[in-house]
Amino acid sequence: MIKATVYVTIKQSVLDPQGVAVQGALHSMGYTEAQSVRIGKYMEIKLDTNDRNEAEARVKDMCEKLLANTVVEDYRFELEV
Amino acid sequence: MKFAVLVFPGSNCDIDCYKAVEDTLNEPVDYVWHTATDLSAYDCILVPGGFSYGDYLRCGAISRFAPVMAEVAKAAEQGKYVLGICNGFQILTEAGLLPGTLRRNMSLKFRCHDTVLRVENNENPFTSQYEKGQEIKIPIAHGEGNYYCDEATLAKLEENKQIIFRYVGNPNGSLDDIAGISNERGNVVGMMPHPERAVDSLLGSEDGKGMFISILKAWRDQHESASIR
């Protein structure tokens, strides 16, 4: 069993309106050091395989096809046995 | 001319689309469930608004893998007419049938009100009944309608006259005020505003009727039959 942890974030070149709103909230609470906030997604996927290379290729495929919209999002993932 | 209105779990503008075709054109129209694997009987496919699959992950991200979407791609390839409205537009971008994507509204608010659209291209099969530059009143109802694409794509949209509608007064932060676009060939159109909700003066506007009449005319011209009724 391999566990994949996938992070999907909005590309740096694309404005994240939710992040801006949360940053504003942090500022109004006195956390003025919050320079920027980017909101993303965190996913845990349990894979029924022990082949790390295969898992890597398959998770990349999942990210490209479904988990991220690469027009506006970046993704990265970690594999853990 | 035969219309299909796709129905996904969570579609909620399917009845409006069905009624708009029925009332405006009096042409045959069917609801087609997302599991369908044959759209060959239809000349125009309407992908309605709503919250298909609960908008989980991203709007349209899951629906685009529904069995019927392979058939929509096939129909688009064959040059049949495809119109995605609101969530339907989001599904078509996720499916790669239209470029770009729809982000969260800049205001973070769900915007539900009339908007004024300017017809930027009236040479599209869906817009021939309008004048170029005509302003029409069509309602919006969305939280994720903020159109985005990269600069190269935007230049291409502009060059190929794929920008069909622009907002007069941008309600959601859309790039270049874009409200609706087409594919390069022009037979696939996606838009956030709801023309099917603007087909009767009782609804506040009849300006959406032109889209339905246009597409029937385009189909009839193509099939060299009688004039529009």
UniProtKB/TrEMBL annotation, chain A:
One of its GO terms (cellular component) is cytoplasm. Pfam families: PurS. Its EC number is 6.3.5.3. One of its GO terms (molecular function) is ATP binding. It comes from the Bacteria. The keyword Cytoplasm applies. The keyword Nucleotide-binding applies. It is found in: Cytoplasm. Pathway: Purine metabolism; IMP biosynthesis via de novo pathway; 5-amino-1-(5-phospho-D-ribosyl)imidazole from N(2)-formyl-N(1)-(5-phospho-D-ribosyl)glycinamide: step 1/2. It catalyses: N(2)-formyl-N(1)-(5-phospho-beta-D-ribosyl)glycinamide + L-glutamine + ATP + H2O = 2-formamido-N(1)-(5-O-phospho-beta-D-ribosyl)acetamidine + L-glutamate + ADP + phosphate + H(+). GO terms for biological process: 'de novo' IMP biosynthetic process. Keywords: ATP-binding, Cytoplasm, Ligase, Nucleotide-binding, Purine biosynthesis. Part of the phosphoribosylformylglycinamidine synthase complex involved in the purines biosynthetic pathway. Catalyzes the ATP-dependent conversion of formylglycinamide ribonucleotide (FGAR) and glutamine to yield formylglycinamidine ribonucleotide (FGAM) and glutamate. The FGAM synthase complex is composed of three subunits. PurQ produces an ammonia molecule by converting glutamine to glutamate. PurL transfers the ammonia molecule to FGAR to form FGAM in an ATP-dependent manner. Part of the FGAM synthase complex composed of 1 PurL, 1 PurQ and 2 PurS subunits. Belongs to the PurS family. This is Phosphoribosylformylglycinamidine synthase subunit PurS.
UniProtKB/TrEMBL annotation, chain B:
Gene3D superfamilies: 3.40.50.880. It is found in: Cytoplasm. One of its GO terms (biological process) is 'de novo' IMP biosynthetic process. The active site is at 86 (nucleophile), 194, 196. Its EC number is 6.3.5.3, 3.5.1.2. GO terms for molecular function: ATP binding; glutaminase activity; phosphoribosylformylglycinamidine synthase activity. It comes from the Bacteria. It catalyses: L-glutamine + H2O = L-glutamate + NH4(+); N(2)-formyl-N(1)-(5-phospho-beta-D-ribosyl)glycinamide + L-glutamine + ATP + H2O = 2-formamido-N(1)-(5-O-phospho-beta-D-ribosyl)acetamidine + L-glutamate + ADP + phosphate + H(+). Pathway: Purine metabolism; IMP biosynthesis via de novo pathway; 5-amino-1-(5-phospho-D-ribosyl)imidazole from N(2)-formyl-N(1)-(5-phospho-D-ribosyl)glycinamide: step 1/2. InterPro entries: Class_I_gatase-like (IPR029062), PRibForGlyAmidine_synth_PurQ (IPR010075). Keywords: ATP-binding, Cytoplasm, Glutamine amidotransferase, Hydrolase, Ligase, Nucleotide-binding, Purine biosynthesis. It holds the Pfam family GATase_5. Part of the phosphoribosylformylglycinamidine synthase complex involved in the purines biosynthetic pathway. Catalyzes the ATP-dependent conversion of formylglycinamide ribonucleotide (FGAR) and glutamine to yield formylglycinamidine ribonucleotide (FGAM) and glutamate. The FGAM synthase complex is composed of three subunits. PurQ produces an ammonia molecule by converting glutamine to glutamate. PurL transfers the ammonia molecule to FGAR to form FGAM in an ATP-dependent manner. This is Phosphoribosylformylglycinamidine synthase subunit PurQ. The gene is purQ.
